[in-house]
Specification:
Number of domains: 2
Strand content: 25-35%
CATH superfamily of the largest domain: Pseudouridine synthase
CATH topology of the largest domain: Pseudouridine synthase
Oligomer: single chain
Shape: globular
CATH architecture of the largest domain: 2-Layer Sandwich
Order of helices and strands: EEEEEEEEHEEHEEEEEEHHEEH
Largest sheet: 10 strands, mixed
Helix content: 10-25%
CATH class of the largest domain: Alpha Beta
Length: 291
């Protein structure tokens, strides 16, 4: 469960990692096991858990001589940010292993789930080309506001960047984007969906779901903030990714929903559909070699 408090007169949500936490004068919360929870400055009332710089907290989902797939926690950027000194997934991973890692793709800082890195330039070119050709198969789990009546659908709306790090639908100047979604479970006031982005624009899933009146829960950029502050994290998780290795073998990497995601489902949602198993591996009949 989540507790509410204040740091320097600013409200925040605290996620107690083992039931004990304390305030620090620099605006952070320190749990008794040493991990840190930070107030999210852009959205008063919402906090998130930082994974810290310990590489042991980053789970490796798949690794061979060419590719590394990491399970990114929410709250950490994939690559270095403009503000120096902030942790990022790339530097954390490189600090724990010899050699250089090449960034293949990214997911949003606030999201969690699978991120791919290449371990050499040739592998980077090989997998990056699959992203460009849209042959990579990606699946996300998302919890949206509102009850979606349809069993699923496809959203085809052009997007372009706007100010303040946001993106939006623009029929005139936007780039073509396509997102498929399927309802997995309905709650009293929200819906669990499985999402397949067919293109890869920035914030595509977040903006597309927002554009049909169902923003992702906990999103600090899209949706009514009075509702969003009920959620301690962005409820978006990269669950599976399928691609061909340089060897030619097709693999599907899977990531289970993290505890921070499952805890929110348990604490703030009342289920209407009790048939879905959120923690189970996602169904993917097209996968050739799950790992």
């Amino acid at each position: 469960m989540y507790s509410f408090g204040k740091i320097n007169s600013r409200p925040f949500w605290v996620v107690p990692l083992n039931g004990k936490y304390k305030c620090r004068s620099n605006g952070f919360i320190k749990a008794s096991d040493g991990r840190i929870i930070q107030s999210r400055r852009t959205v008063p009332g919402v906090g998130y858990m930082s994974c810290g710089k310990d590489p042991q907290m980053i789970h490796t989902l798949f690794e061979d001589d060419d590719i590394l797939a990491a399970d990114k926690p929410e709250g950490i950027a994939c690559i270095p940010e403009r503000v120096k000194g902030k942790e990022n997934l790339l530097s954390v991973l490189e600090s724990a292993r010899p050699g250089k890692l090449y960034v293949v793709h990214r997911i949003d800082k606030e999201a969690s789930g699978i991120v791919l890195f290449a371990k050499n330039a040739a592998a980077h070119r090989h997998v990056s080309l699959q992203f460009e050709n849209r042959s990579v198969r990606k699946t996300y789990a998302a919890l949206t506001h509102g009850v979606i009546a349809e069993s699923g659908g496809r959203i085809e709306k052009p997007l372009r960047p706007f100010g303040s790090g946001r993106a939006g639908v623009d029929e005139g100047r936007g780039k073509a984007c396509s997102t498929e979604f399927h309802v997995e479970a309905r709650f009293e006031s929200c819906t669990m969906v499985r999402v397949h982005p067919l293109t890869g624009r920035r914030h595509q899933i977040r903006v597309h779901l927002y554009s049909i009146g169902h923003p992702i829960a906990g999103d600090p950029l899209y949706g009514e903030q009075a509702e969003q502050i009920r959620f301690p994290r962005l409820m978006l998780h990269a669950r599976t990714i399928g691609f061909a290795l340089p060897s030619g073998r097709f693999v599907t990497v899977e990531s289970a929903l993290p505890k921070t995601f499952l805890d929110v489902l348990e604490s703030v949602c009342t289920r209407h559909d009790k048939k879905s198993n959120f923690g189970a591996s996602p169904s993917n009949p097209e996968a050739d070699s799950p790992v």
